[in-house]
Amino acid sequence: MFNFLGKAISYYGRHNIAASRDHHKLRFLQHSPLSMLFSRNFISKSNNANQHSFTVSYLMNSCGLSLESALSASKYVRLKTPHKPDSVLNFFKKRGFPKSQTTNIIKRIPKVLLLSPETLLRKLEFFHCEGISNPDTVKILSKYPGLLSRSLDNHLIPTFNSLSHLLHSSEKTIALIIRFPYILYHDADYYLLPNVKILRDSGVPESDIIKSIESWPKLFLRHPKFFEKNVASVKEMGINPLRLKFVLAIQAKCIMSESQWESKLHVYKKWGWSEQEWLAAFLKCPWCMITSEDKITAIMDFFVNGMGWEPAVIAKHPALTTFSMEKRIIPRGAVIQFLLSKGLVKSDTTYLTTLLSYPEKTFMLRLMNYDDAPKLLKLYQEKLDLSKKTKCSV
Protein backbone atom coordinates (compact mmCIF):
# COMPACT_ATOMS: atom_id res chain seq x y z
CA MET A 1 0.00 0.00 0.00
CA PHE A 2 2.75 2.40 0.95
CA ASN A 3 4.65 1.40 -2.16
CA PHE A 4 1.59 2.20 -4.26
CA LEU A 5 1.15 5.62 -2.62
CA GLY A 6 4.81 6.37 -3.03
CA LYS A 7 4.70 5.54 -6.69
CA ALA A 8 1.59 7.64 -7.18
CA ILE A 9 3.10 10.62 -5.37
CA SER A 10 6.30 10.20 -7.35
CA TYR A 11 4.32 10.07 -10.65
CA TYR A 12 2.19 13.12 -9.93
CA GLY A 13 5.20 14.99 -8.67
CA ARG A 14 7.11 14.36 -11.89
CA HIS A 15 4.02 15.33 -13.93
CA ASN A 16 3.60 18.64 -12.05
CA ILE A 17 7.28 19.43 -12.40
CA ALA A 18 7.09 18.75 -16.17
CA ALA A 19 3.98 20.87 -16.47
CA SER A 20 5.69 23.63 -14.57
CA ARG A 21 8.66 23.43 -16.91
CA ASP A 22 6.35 23.63 -19.99
CA HIS A 23 4.64 26.63 -18.48
CA HIS A 24 7.95 28.40 -17.94
CA LYS A 25 9.02 27.52 -21.51
CA LEU A 26 5.82 28.99 -22.87
CA ARG A 27 6.30 32.17 -20.86
CA PHE A 28 9.89 32.37 -22.10
CA LEU A 29 8.82 31.99 -25.72
CA GLN A 30 6.12 34.60 -25.30
CA HIS A 31 8.56 37.16 -23.97
CA SER A 32 11.67 36.20 -25.93
CA PRO A 33 13.17 38.65 -28.54
CA LEU A 34 12.42 36.16 -31.33
CA SER A 35 8.76 35.91 -30.28
CA MET A 36 8.46 39.69 -30.07
CA LEU A 37 10.03 40.02 -33.55
CA PHE A 38 7.51 37.59 -35.02
CA SER A 39 4.72 39.46 -33.29
CA ARG A 40 5.88 42.83 -34.64
CA ASN A 41 6.22 41.39 -38.15
CA PHE A 42 2.73 40.00 -37.97
CA ILE A 43 1.33 43.33 -36.78
CA SER A 44 3.35 45.20 -39.45
CA LYS A 45 2.07 42.93 -42.21
CA SER A 46 -1.44 43.30 -40.89
CA ASN A 47 -1.10 47.11 -40.87
CA ASN A 48 0.35 47.11 -44.39
CA ALA A 49 -2.50 44.94 -45.61
CA ASN A 50 -5.00 47.30 -44.03
CA GLN A 51 -3.27 50.36 -45.57
CA HIS A 52 -3.19 48.69 -48.97
CA SER A 53 -6.87 47.80 -48.71
CA PHE A 54 -7.75 51.37 -47.68
CA THR A 55 -5.58 52.83 -50.47
CA VAL A 56 -7.22 50.73 -53.18
CA SER A 57 -10.69 51.47 -51.79
CA TYR A 58 -9.99 55.23 -51.64
CA LEU A 59 -8.55 55.32 -55.15
CA MET A 60 -11.67 53.64 -56.49
CA ASN A 61 -14.39 55.29 -54.43
CA SER A 62 -13.03 58.81 -54.02
CA CYS A 63 -10.76 59.22 -57.05
CA GLY A 64 -12.76 57.30 -59.65
CA LEU A 65 -10.08 54.78 -60.65
CA SER A 66 -10.98 51.32 -61.89
CA LEU A 67 -9.93 48.31 -59.79
CA GLU A 68 -7.07 47.57 -62.18
CA SER A 69 -5.84 51.18 -62.15
CA ALA A 70 -6.24 51.43 -58.36
CA LEU A 71 -4.18 48.27 -57.80
CA SER A 72 -1.49 49.63 -60.11
CA ALA A 73 -1.48 53.07 -58.46
CA SER A 74 -1.32 51.52 -54.98
CA LYS A 75 2.20 50.30 -55.78
CA TYR A 76 3.37 53.92 -55.75
CA VAL A 77 1.32 55.45 -52.95
CA ARG A 78 0.08 54.24 -49.56
CA LEU A 79 -2.64 56.18 -47.78
CA LYS A 80 -3.16 55.93 -44.02
CA THR A 81 -6.09 58.35 -43.66
CA PRO A 82 -8.31 60.29 -46.07
CA HIS A 83 -7.27 63.69 -44.66
CA LYS A 84 -4.40 64.63 -47.04
CA PRO A 85 -5.81 63.05 -50.24
CA ASP A 86 -9.19 64.68 -49.53
CA SER A 87 -7.49 68.08 -49.36
CA VAL A 88 -5.83 67.40 -52.74
CA LEU A 89 -9.12 66.40 -54.36
CA ASN A 90 -10.81 69.50 -52.96
CA PHE A 91 -7.95 71.63 -54.28
CA PHE A 92 -8.36 70.34 -57.83
CA LYS A 93 -12.12 70.79 -57.64
CA LYS A 94 -11.87 74.40 -56.48
CA ARG A 95 -9.33 75.16 -59.22
CA GLY A 96 -11.65 74.08 -62.02
CA PHE A 97 -10.31 70.61 -62.78
CA PRO A 98 -13.12 68.35 -64.05
CA LYS A 99 -13.49 65.08 -62.13
CA SER A 100 -12.41 63.05 -65.17
CA GLN A 101 -9.18 65.04 -65.51
CA THR A 102 -8.45 64.79 -61.79
CA THR A 103 -8.92 61.02 -62.06
CA ASN A 104 -6.51 60.93 -65.01
CA ILE A 105 -3.91 62.95 -63.09
CA ILE A 106 -4.07 60.60 -60.08
CA LYS A 107 -3.98 57.55 -62.33
CA ARG A 108 -0.77 58.75 -63.96
CA ILE A 109 0.86 60.41 -60.93
CA PRO A 110 -0.58 58.71 -57.80
CA LYS A 111 1.91 60.47 -55.50
CA VAL A 112 0.17 63.77 -56.19
CA LEU A 113 -2.22 62.71 -53.40
CA LEU A 114 0.65 63.11 -50.94
CA LEU A 115 1.39 66.72 -51.92
CA SER A 116 0.12 69.56 -49.81
CA PRO A 117 -2.42 72.00 -51.28
CA GLU A 118 0.12 74.78 -50.56
CA THR A 119 2.71 73.11 -52.81
CA LEU A 120 0.15 72.61 -55.57
CA LEU A 121 -1.04 76.20 -55.24
CA ARG A 122 2.50 77.58 -55.71
CA LYS A 123 2.87 75.63 -58.94
CA LEU A 124 -0.47 76.78 -60.32
CA GLU A 125 0.32 80.37 -59.35
CA PHE A 126 3.58 80.08 -61.29
CA PHE A 127 1.66 79.31 -64.49
CA HIS A 128 -0.75 82.16 -63.83
CA CYS A 129 2.08 84.62 -63.13
CA GLU A 130 3.64 83.72 -66.48
CA GLY A 131 0.41 84.68 -68.22
CA ILE A 132 -1.15 81.23 -68.67
CA SER A 133 -4.91 81.28 -68.09
CA ASN A 134 -6.56 78.91 -65.64
CA PRO A 135 -8.29 76.86 -68.42
CA ASP A 136 -4.93 76.51 -70.20
CA THR A 137 -3.22 75.55 -66.93
CA VAL A 138 -5.84 72.84 -66.42
CA LYS A 139 -5.24 71.70 -70.00
CA ILE A 140 -1.45 71.60 -69.54
CA LEU A 141 -1.49 69.66 -66.26
CA SER A 142 -4.19 67.28 -67.49
CA LYS A 143 -2.17 66.55 -70.61
CA TYR A 144 1.10 66.06 -68.73
CA PRO A 145 0.56 65.78 -64.94
CA GLY A 146 4.20 64.81 -64.45
CA LEU A 147 4.89 68.55 -64.21
CA LEU A 148 3.31 68.49 -60.75
CA SER A 149 6.10 66.22 -59.56
CA ARG A 150 8.81 68.66 -60.67
CA SER A 151 10.40 71.16 -58.30
CA LEU A 152 9.11 74.68 -58.85
CA ASP A 153 12.30 76.55 -57.91
CA ASN A 154 14.85 74.03 -59.18
CA HIS A 155 13.19 72.99 -62.41
CA LEU A 156 9.96 74.61 -63.65
CA ILE A 157 11.07 78.22 -63.31
CA PRO A 158 14.61 77.72 -64.75
CA THR A 159 13.28 75.63 -67.66
CA PHE A 160 10.58 78.18 -68.49
CA ASN A 161 13.20 80.95 -68.44
CA SER A 162 15.51 78.94 -70.74
CA LEU A 163 12.69 78.45 -73.24
CA SER A 164 11.73 82.13 -73.12
CA HIS A 165 15.35 83.10 -73.72
CA LEU A 166 15.67 80.73 -76.68
CA LEU A 167 12.40 81.77 -78.31
CA HIS A 168 12.89 85.46 -77.47
CA SER A 169 9.25 85.60 -76.40
CA SER A 170 7.15 84.63 -73.39
CA GLU A 171 4.09 84.43 -75.65
CA LYS A 172 5.78 81.87 -77.92
CA THR A 173 6.92 79.92 -74.87
CA ILE A 174 3.41 79.81 -73.44
CA ALA A 175 1.96 78.69 -76.81
CA LEU A 176 4.60 75.95 -77.02
CA ILE A 177 3.95 74.69 -73.47
CA ILE A 178 0.18 74.61 -74.04
CA ARG A 179 0.69 72.55 -77.19
CA PHE A 180 3.54 70.40 -75.89
CA PRO A 181 3.78 70.42 -72.05
CA TYR A 182 6.42 67.68 -72.20
CA ILE A 183 9.03 70.30 -73.19
CA LEU A 184 8.76 71.82 -69.70
CA TYR A 185 9.30 68.49 -67.95
CA HIS A 186 12.83 67.83 -69.22
CA ASP A 187 15.89 69.62 -67.91
CA ALA A 188 16.95 72.11 -70.59
CA ASP A 189 20.63 71.67 -69.70
CA TYR A 190 20.57 67.95 -70.59
CA TYR A 191 18.81 67.94 -73.96
CA LEU A 192 17.43 71.21 -75.32
CA LEU A 193 20.41 73.53 -74.87
CA PRO A 194 23.11 71.05 -76.04
CA ASN A 195 21.09 70.26 -79.18
CA VAL A 196 20.54 73.95 -79.90
CA LYS A 197 24.31 74.45 -79.59
CA ILE A 198 24.91 71.64 -82.11
CA LEU A 199 22.68 73.40 -84.64
CA ARG A 200 24.33 76.76 -83.99
CA ASP A 201 27.77 75.24 -84.44
CA SER A 202 26.55 73.71 -87.72
CA GLY A 203 25.59 77.14 -89.05
CA VAL A 204 21.81 76.92 -88.72
CA PRO A 205 20.32 80.45 -88.51
CA GLU A 206 18.76 81.47 -85.20
CA SER A 207 15.40 82.08 -86.90
CA ASP A 208 15.35 78.48 -88.17
CA ILE A 209 16.25 77.15 -84.73
CA ILE A 210 13.32 79.06 -83.21
CA LYS A 211 10.93 77.79 -85.91
CA SER A 212 12.18 74.26 -85.34
CA ILE A 213 11.66 74.39 -81.57
CA GLU A 214 8.13 75.71 -82.12
CA SER A 215 7.28 73.16 -84.83
CA TRP A 216 9.12 70.03 -83.67
CA PRO A 217 9.92 70.43 -79.96
CA LYS A 218 10.27 66.68 -79.49
CA LEU A 219 13.26 66.71 -81.82
CA PHE A 220 15.23 68.72 -79.25
CA LEU A 221 14.61 66.17 -76.51
CA ARG A 222 16.77 63.55 -78.24
CA HIS A 223 20.01 62.53 -76.60
CA PRO A 224 22.70 64.99 -77.80
CA LYS A 225 25.01 62.19 -79.04
CA PHE A 226 22.21 60.69 -81.11
CA PHE A 227 21.20 64.15 -82.32
CA GLU A 228 24.78 65.04 -83.30
CA LYS A 229 25.19 61.76 -85.19
CA ASN A 230 22.14 62.52 -87.34
CA VAL A 231 23.24 66.12 -87.90
CA ALA A 232 26.54 64.78 -89.25
CA SER A 233 24.66 62.32 -91.49
CA VAL A 234 22.52 65.11 -92.97
CA LYS A 235 25.63 67.24 -93.56
CA GLU A 236 27.17 64.38 -95.56
CA MET A 237 24.10 64.35 -97.82
CA GLY A 238 24.92 67.90 -98.84
CA ILE A 239 21.91 69.75 -97.44
CA ASN A 240 22.63 73.43 -96.81
CA PRO A 241 22.41 74.31 -93.07
CA LEU A 242 21.19 77.78 -94.04
CA ARG A 243 17.92 76.28 -95.27
CA LEU A 244 15.12 75.09 -93.00
CA LYS A 245 15.14 71.78 -94.86
CA PHE A 246 18.39 71.01 -93.04
CA VAL A 247 16.47 70.70 -89.75
CA LEU A 248 13.62 68.89 -91.53
CA ALA A 249 16.12 66.30 -92.72
CA ILE A 250 17.46 65.88 -89.16
CA GLN A 251 13.89 65.36 -87.97
CA ALA A 252 13.34 62.70 -90.64
CA LYS A 253 16.53 60.90 -89.60
CA CYS A 254 15.81 61.07 -85.88
CA ILE A 255 12.30 59.65 -85.85
CA MET A 256 13.20 56.25 -87.28
CA SER A 257 15.76 53.52 -86.83
CA GLU A 258 18.45 52.72 -89.38
CA SER A 259 16.55 49.58 -90.42
CA GLN A 260 13.34 51.59 -91.00
CA TRP A 261 15.31 54.14 -93.00
CA GLU A 262 16.87 51.46 -95.21
CA SER A 263 13.51 49.73 -95.64
CA LYS A 264 11.86 52.91 -96.96
CA LEU A 265 14.80 53.57 -99.23
CA HIS A 266 14.39 50.03 -100.59
CA VAL A 267 10.71 50.72 -101.39
CA TYR A 268 11.60 53.77 -103.49
CA LYS A 269 14.34 51.86 -105.31
CA LYS A 270 11.93 48.99 -105.94
CA TRP A 271 9.75 51.48 -107.83
CA GLY A 272 12.67 52.45 -110.04
CA TRP A 273 14.40 55.31 -108.25
CA SER A 274 18.17 55.40 -108.48
CA GLU A 275 20.32 56.38 -105.52
CA GLN A 276 20.87 59.80 -107.12
CA GLU A 277 17.14 60.31 -107.74
CA TRP A 278 16.33 59.39 -104.16
CA LEU A 279 18.96 61.77 -102.77
CA ALA A 280 17.74 64.61 -105.00
CA ALA A 281 14.16 63.92 -103.88
CA PHE A 282 15.18 63.89 -100.21
CA LEU A 283 17.07 67.17 -100.60
CA LYS A 284 13.93 68.74 -102.08
CA CYS A 285 11.47 67.24 -99.60
CA PRO A 286 12.84 65.44 -96.53
CA TRP A 287 9.26 64.58 -95.58
CA CYS A 288 9.24 61.95 -98.34
CA MET A 289 11.08 59.66 -95.89
CA ILE A 290 8.57 60.23 -93.10
CA THR A 291 5.75 58.80 -95.23
CA SER A 292 4.90 55.21 -94.31
CA GLU A 293 5.98 52.34 -96.55
CA ASP A 294 2.37 51.41 -97.31
CA LYS A 295 1.57 54.95 -98.37
CA ILE A 296 4.71 55.20 -100.52
CA THR A 297 3.65 52.00 -102.29
CA ALA A 298 0.04 53.21 -102.75
CA ILE A 299 1.12 56.59 -104.17
CA MET A 300 3.72 55.13 -106.52
CA ASP A 301 1.19 52.54 -107.71
CA PHE A 302 -1.43 55.25 -108.36
CA PHE A 303 0.86 57.45 -110.43
CA VAL A 304 2.91 54.76 -112.20
CA ASN A 305 0.23 52.14 -112.90
CA GLY A 306 -2.88 54.33 -112.64
CA MET A 307 -1.72 57.53 -114.35
CA GLY A 308 1.01 56.02 -116.50
CA TRP A 309 3.77 58.30 -115.20
CA GLU A 310 7.42 57.40 -115.04
CA PRO A 311 8.81 56.89 -111.51
CA ALA A 312 11.27 59.70 -112.22
CA VAL A 313 8.33 62.17 -112.32
CA ILE A 314 7.53 61.50 -108.68
CA ALA A 315 11.23 61.72 -107.83
CA LYS A 316 11.29 65.23 -109.35
CA HIS A 317 8.18 66.17 -107.37
CA PRO A 318 8.68 64.30 -104.06
CA ALA A 319 6.12 66.44 -102.22
CA LEU A 320 3.51 64.25 -103.94
CA THR A 321 4.40 61.48 -101.49
CA THR A 322 3.26 63.64 -98.57
CA PHE A 323 -0.25 64.36 -99.92
CA SER A 324 -3.32 62.54 -98.64
CA MET A 325 -4.52 59.77 -100.93
CA GLU A 326 -8.15 60.24 -99.88
CA LYS A 327 -8.37 64.03 -99.71
CA ARG A 328 -6.16 65.01 -102.62
CA ILE A 329 -4.46 62.45 -104.87
CA ILE A 330 -7.45 60.23 -105.77
CA PRO A 331 -10.06 63.03 -106.23
CA ARG A 332 -7.74 65.33 -108.16
CA GLY A 333 -6.32 62.40 -110.11
CA ALA A 334 -9.84 61.62 -111.34
CA VAL A 335 -10.30 65.23 -112.48
CA ILE A 336 -6.94 65.22 -114.27
CA GLN A 337 -7.80 61.97 -116.08
CA PHE A 338 -11.13 63.49 -117.19
CA LEU A 339 -9.36 66.62 -118.51
CA LEU A 340 -6.81 64.47 -120.36
CA SER A 341 -9.54 62.29 -121.91
CA LYS A 342 -11.31 65.40 -123.24
CA GLY A 343 -8.10 66.94 -124.51
CA LEU A 344 -8.59 69.94 -122.22
CA VAL A 345 -5.03 69.70 -120.86
CA LYS A 346 -1.79 68.46 -122.31
CA SER A 347 -0.01 65.46 -120.90
CA ASP A 348 2.52 67.74 -119.27
CA THR A 349 3.49 66.23 -115.94
CA THR A 350 4.91 69.53 -114.70
CA TYR A 351 1.53 71.23 -115.10
CA LEU A 352 -0.35 68.19 -113.76
CA THR A 353 1.80 67.98 -110.64
CA THR A 354 1.13 71.69 -110.15
CA LEU A 355 -2.60 71.00 -110.21
CA LEU A 356 -2.06 68.40 -107.50
CA SER A 357 -0.01 70.83 -105.44
CA TYR A 358 -2.43 73.77 -105.49
CA PRO A 359 -4.19 74.69 -102.22
CA GLU A 360 -7.84 73.63 -102.22
CA LYS A 361 -9.23 77.11 -102.96
CA THR A 362 -6.85 77.67 -105.89
CA PHE A 363 -7.63 74.24 -107.34
CA MET A 364 -11.38 74.90 -107.22
CA LEU A 365 -10.92 78.26 -108.96
CA ARG A 366 -8.96 76.52 -111.73
CA LEU A 367 -11.80 74.10 -112.30
CA MET A 368 -14.25 77.00 -112.64
CA ASN A 369 -12.37 78.17 -115.75
CA TYR A 370 -13.50 75.14 -117.76
CA ASP A 371 -16.82 74.90 -119.63
CA ASP A 372 -17.34 71.51 -118.01
CA ALA A 373 -16.90 73.06 -114.55
CA PRO A 374 -20.21 71.68 -113.13
CA LYS A 375 -19.31 68.17 -114.30
CA LEU A 376 -15.75 68.49 -112.98
CA LEU A 377 -16.91 69.75 -109.59
CA LYS A 378 -19.45 66.92 -109.34
CA LEU A 379 -16.79 64.32 -110.23
CA TYR A 380 -14.37 65.82 -107.74
CA GLN A 381 -16.94 65.79 -104.92
CA GLU A 382 -18.00 62.22 -105.71
CA LYS A 383 -14.40 61.00 -105.51
CA LEU A 384 -13.87 62.89 -102.27
CA ASP A 385 -16.98 61.31 -100.72
CA LEU A 386 -16.06 57.86 -102.03
CA SER A 387 -12.52 58.09 -100.64
CA LYS A 388 -13.88 59.09 -97.23
CA LYS A 389 -16.32 56.15 -97.20
CA THR A 390 -13.61 53.73 -98.30
CA LYS A 391 -11.30 54.96 -95.54
CA CYS A 392 -14.02 54.65 -92.90
CA SER A 393 -14.85 51.08 -93.95
CA VAL A 394 -11.23 49.91 -93.73
Give structural notes:
The chain is built from 22 helices and no strands.
Radius of gyration: 35 Å
Query: Strand pairing plus helix content: what structural class?
Result: mainly alpha
User: How many helices?
Assistant: 22
The poorly predicted ranges are 1-20, 22-30, 34-47
- Distance N terminus to C terminus? 107 Å
In summary, what is this structure?
The protein is mainly alpha-helical and 394 residues long. It has helices at 2-31, 33-61, 67-73, 83-94, 99-108, 117-129, 134-143, 152-167, 170-179, 182-185, 192-201, 206-215, 224-237, 245-254, 258-270, 275-284, 293-306, 311-316, 325-341, 349-357, 360-367, 373-393. Helices cover 72% and strands 0% of the residues.
Write the layout of secondary structure elements.
Elements: H1 2-31, H2 33-61, H3 67-73, H4 83-94, H5 99-108, H6 117-129, H7 134-143, H8 152-167, H9 170-179, H10 182-185, H11 192-201, H12 206-215, H13 224-237, H14 245-254, H15 258-270, H16 275-284, H17 293-306, H18 311-316, H19 325-341, H20 349-357, H21 360-367, H22 373-393
Helix pairs in contact: 2-3, 8-9, 11-13, 13-14, 19-22
Protein name: Mitochondrial transcription termination factor family protein
Organism: Citrus sinensis
